Amino acid sequence: MTARDVDIHTLPGMLTALRLPSFHKLWAEIATRADSEGWPAARFLAVLAEYELAERDMRRIRRHLNEAHLPAGKTLATFDFKALPSLPRPRVEALAAGDWLEEGGNLIAIGNSGTGKTHILSAIGHALIEAGHRVFYTRTSDLVQRLQAARRDLVLEAALAKLDRFDLIILDDITYAHKDQAETSVLFELIARRYEYRSIAIAANQPFSGWDQIFPDKAMTVAAIDRLVHHATILEMNAQSYRQRAATANKRARAETPATTSNDNQNKGAD
Ligand code: ADP
Ligand code: MG
C-alpha cells in the first residue's frame, strides 16, 4: 500500500475502531497546526499520542473515584493540619504516596469521635486513587452485612475475590460492627484473606482493648488484631472533637463581636 492509496475519509472510522477517542477528536485541528507550522510527521503523531494517554489516565481516575464510594469533599486540601498537631502533614503525605500498600501494609486510625479519622482516611484514599491505586471505602457494618448475605447465598468466596481487585479497603467505624450482628466470622475471613497481600485501613473509636465486641470470640479478636498490626501504621487520633472545637470557636467569635455591629447582624442568618 502506498501513502496515496489511503483514503483520508476513512480516518474517523478507523480511529473509532481502534478506540482512540482523543485522536478522533483532535486529529483535524492538530493536523492543521502541524501543516501550517511545518511539524515533522513524528511530532504530529507524538502530540496526538500524548493527548490520548492523558485522557485515558483521567478516565481511569474518574472510574476509580466512582467505584471507591469515598465520602464527598474529604480530601487533603480540606483537612486542617493545625487542628491535629499529633498528625504532621509530612507523615500523611508519605502515606498518600502509597509505598505501604506494597505487600499489603495496613493503616489503623484510633481515637475518639469527631477527630477526623474518616476525613483523613478518605483523603489518603483519594490521593492513592490519583496515584493510580484502586480503593474501596465502606462502613464496616455495611460490608459485614453484604458479606453475610453472600455467605447465606453460598457466594462468599466470589464476594471476597471481587474485593481483591482493590489495593486498599477502608473499613470505617469498625467498632460499630457487632458480633451479634455478625454471628458468622466474615470480617475475620476478609482480614485473614488480605493478610500480607492487600491493604486495609481502619477507623476505630475504641482502642484494641475494646475490640472484643466485634468478633465472635476472644481468640478470633486476638488473631484478627495480630494480623492487622503485623505490618501496620497506627495513627493515634485522640483530641477534642473537631465539631466541638469549631462550635466553641464560633461561640467565642460571637461573644467577642460587639452586638451592634452590622457584621453581627449579617452573621445571624448564617447560624
Ligand atoms: P471521626 O471519623 O474521627 O469521628 P470525622 O472525620 O467524621 O471524625 O470528622 C468530623 C467532622 O469534622 C467532619 O465533617 C470532618 O470533615 C471535620 N474534620 C475533622 N477534623 C478535621 C480537620 N483536621 N480539618 C478539617 N475538617 C475536619
Ligand atoms: Mg468517622
Explain the overall architecture.
With 271 residues, this protein is of the alpha/beta class. The chain folds into 2 domains: 3-67, no CATH class; 70-242, 3-Layer(aba) Sandwich (Rossmann fold), CATH 3.40.50. 52% of the residues lie in helices and 10% in strands. It is built from 11 helices and 5 strands, in the order H-H-H-H-E-H-E-H-H-E-H-E-H-E-H-H. It has helices at residues 11-17, 21-37, 41-68, 89-97, 117-130, 140-152, 156-163, 186-194, 218-230, 242-256, 262-268; strands spanning 106-110, 135-139, 168-172, 199-204, 232-236. Strands 2-3-4-1-5 form a 5-stranded parallel β-sheet. Helix 8 links the parallel strand 3 and strand 4 (199-204). The longest helix is centred in the first third of the chain and has 28 residues, at 41-68. Mean pLDDT is 90; it is low at 260-271. The protein binds adenosine-5'-diphosphate and magnesium ion (MG). Magnesium ion binds next to helix 5. Residues 117-118, 172-173, 203 line the site of magnesium ion.
